[in-house]
Write a structure and sequence with these properties.
Elements (H helix, E strand, L loop, with lengths): L5 H6 L29 H5 L19 H14 L3 E5 L2 H12 L5 E5 L4 H15 L2 E5 L4 H6 L5 E7 L11 H10 L3 E5 L9 H4 L3 E5 L13 E5 L1 H8 L5 H5 L5 H8 L5 H21 L4 E2 L9 H7 L9 E5 L3 H13 L5 E2 L9 E4 L10 H6 L6 E5 L6 H14 L4 H5 L1
Parallel strand pairs: 2-3, 2-4, 4-5, 5-6, 10-11
Antiparallel strand pairs: 1-7, 6-7, 8-9, 9-12, 11-12
The structure holds pyridoxal-5'-phosphate.
Length: 413
Amino acid sequence: MKHQNPVETLANTRHEFGEHGGVNMSVEASTTFTVMHPDIMPEIFGGKKGPDHGGCYLYGRHFNPTVYNLGKQLAALEGTEAAYCTASGMSAISATLMQLCDTGDHIVSSNAVYGGTYALMHDLLPGKTGINTTLVDITDLAVVEAAITERTRVIYTESMANPTLRIADIPALSKIAKRHGLQLVVDNTFTPLILSPKKLGADIVVHSMTKFISGASDYIAGAVCADTAFIEQLMDLHTGMLMIFGPTMDPQVAFNISLRIPHLPIRMTEHGQRTRIFAERLHAMGMAVNYPGLPNHPDHELMSEIHCPEYGYGGILTLDMGTEERANELLELLQNEHNFGFVAVSLGYFDTLMSCSGSSTSSEMTDEDKTAAHISPGLIRLSIGYTGTTEQRWAQLLGALEQVGQSPAQRIA
Ligand code: PLP
């Protein structure tokens, strides 16, 4: 498969200069915009006249120039016609699903998704809206297709699943979606630049920009990347989910995130290289490590075929310590004795973040659903940072592992 590095599209995107020719765009701090000729107000409200077609900006919840410009960067990153930035990843996901489905409609979703997304589909949507979801093993294409009903509108998956790190076969899912007239929605939070879901056949790509795209764990932010028609639906002043629920991104946040997009490729490369080194060494020690870059990962071949090779296999690995107690023992040592990283949910930070998924970011799931998705109680998710040197961090990791009785000598013997 021929891969185009998304940085080429990003580099060709029109640069937004600041108001006075500054190399950085300006922050537009107005919540409302002057309509110079009142007679065009109805056309602006009807979505017929925007800033790009003979009209002007209207109101900050609709869209703001700074937020709009970040959206253009996201569209370039994902290779979509348009994108809209939101106040969080969850608002991007919930608005997308609510826009696509009406009462009585149905979603076929991966059973391994972020806990908040699970709670939305498993609990909130059925109760509040009558939109139901069947959770399936997204890597079993026959099961995915068999779950489709007359009322199915959406196939939903994460490109790399949180926290199982299974890889969705987006080209194959896209064929199924097209055959049944469904929208394929892919959450690409774990793999910006590494996987390009739209180019692989997805219809809509959602992001929690809170993670790798921001990279500093300082902002909660999200995005929906799709064709112009869908983004316009979301933004419709009278009916759009984003307009009516109003999860608006602050322009200052958009400005700050936009300054991090240019070095996202460097960060993703470094996250990926360090994670691969640790995964290989942990594997050599005989640890229960899971990483798509390892040849023993069930989706290694698939990912090798569909990823952009410049960015490797991602910045996250999981380690199964068998029980929650042993996982917590290791986490305690890694953070409080060896300074390896922080016990904190989230990911994509410059330092290492670690958490036991079953009791944190997947805690919304029933025990039965956790078992079905292979989320065991001792599973630790590690988002590998790039501060310090690789060898310094490895020595810290090894030190903690030795203390819990997992020294290389013991494991290899
Ligand atoms: N999607 C994935 C894969 C996530 O891991 C998360 C959060 O952890 C979200 C979406 C939700 O994002 P946010 O916290 O920005 O709402």
